[in-house]
Amino acid sequence: MAYFYIKPDVAGGIGRGTVMDATVHPPVVNKLVYLMEGWFGDVIVTTFPCFLIVDEVRQGLLNIGFSGASFAHVDVIKSEDFLELQPDVELPSFVWLKVSGKAGEDDFGIAQNLRLVVSERVLNLLEDFGIPSAIVEPYNG
Known about the structure:
alpha+beta
């Protein structure tokens, strides 16, 4: 199976209320609050070291079966800039995608350079739902 680096859109950042141990690298996040700065439709977004997916994609992943990740609750808050610049944009429900797999073996993994790696079948699913701002490159291990 083919694998790919994917660099999702950085649609926001770590919000107030996040519980994180930044004394280690990468930081360990125990509770995530995502401050959405702007959203342009991508079904996967990021802020280091976390990834969020829309709930509809979570269901799609559950339907196909996958390895290397789990889901957790995330609080998504719209920033003042978001409210000013995109006042009519309704955000879908997001879930925290907690990646734990091995790059090049599992459907989701983090490479040694700390980049997200996904299998071809997961990439196809993400593309079907929409990742217009993501950068995708081949992963060769």
